[in-house]
Amino acid sequence: MKLVIQSLLKGLAIILPLLITLEIVRWLLSTIEGSLAPLLQAVLNNDWYYPGMALISFLLLCTLVGFTARWRSFSWLWSLPGKILLKIPGASQIYGILQDLMELMSGKNFEEESVVIVKLPQSDVELIGIVTKKGGIKDDRMSSLMDDEQLAVFLPMAYNVGGYTIIVPKSCTRNIDMKPAEALQLVLSGGLGKSKAPKPTK
After folding, report:
1. Looking at the DSSP assignment, which residues form a beta bridge with residue 152?
2. Which one of 13, 20, 33, 196 is least enclosed by Cβ atoms within 10 Å?
């Protein structure tokens, strides 16, 4: 009986992540296709529309927006809807959280060596964190709370979309060779993931 239960749990551990990932991808693709398909059908007529064209159009649109965002005038234009959402109660919290999460996962706005190990004072305990702000940055609200030799470090929590932001002296941190997205994946999984260690440089 014990072998049957262990085999069941092992099978669930293999199959469930696959099913959940595929379902999320399917939902995302069907949502994009279902939202844009009526518009393309109206523009191209049904005779010229084929399934999948809405998804391809969405990817092309994202590429175009990302490419044009390099220029200040277009960057201001694309950021305008977000600025409007940030002024709407309720929507501002949702949009702000999603925007911060996307930036965090992509490593956007992070400097080199932004992943650190924080050593707790008077303790041998160490935590993996991501530097979000440094002291001494002009006109920055978070930075204004810190001294020049302090860092704001986000400490993610395992198996939970959350964490803590702490302010620590630079002397309590040491940099590690890891990208923010890799650090998040490692910590959120409680270190149980199968990410390989980086190859040593010669």
Report:
1. 133, 167
2. 196
Cα–Cα distance measured from residue 14 to residue 9, given in angstroms and rounded to the nearest whole number: 9
Q: Where are the alpha helices (DSSP H) in 48-131?
A: 53-68, 72-85, 91-106
Task: Read off the pLDDT of residues 78-125 as tens digits, 9 standing for 90 and up.
Answer: 788 888 887 888 777 777 777 766 766 555 555 556 888 888 877 888
All domains in the chain, ordered by first residue:
2-88 (no CATH), 115-188 (2.30.30)
What's the CA gap between 162 and 139, in Å, rounded?
A: 27
* Cβ count near 133 (within 10 Å): 21
Q: Which residues contact 120 (CB under 8 A, 6 or more apart)?
A: 126, 127, 172
Separation of first and last alpha carbons in the chain: 51
User: What is the side-by-side order of every strand in the sheet holding 163-169?
Assistant: 163-169, 150-156, 126-134, 115-119, 173-175
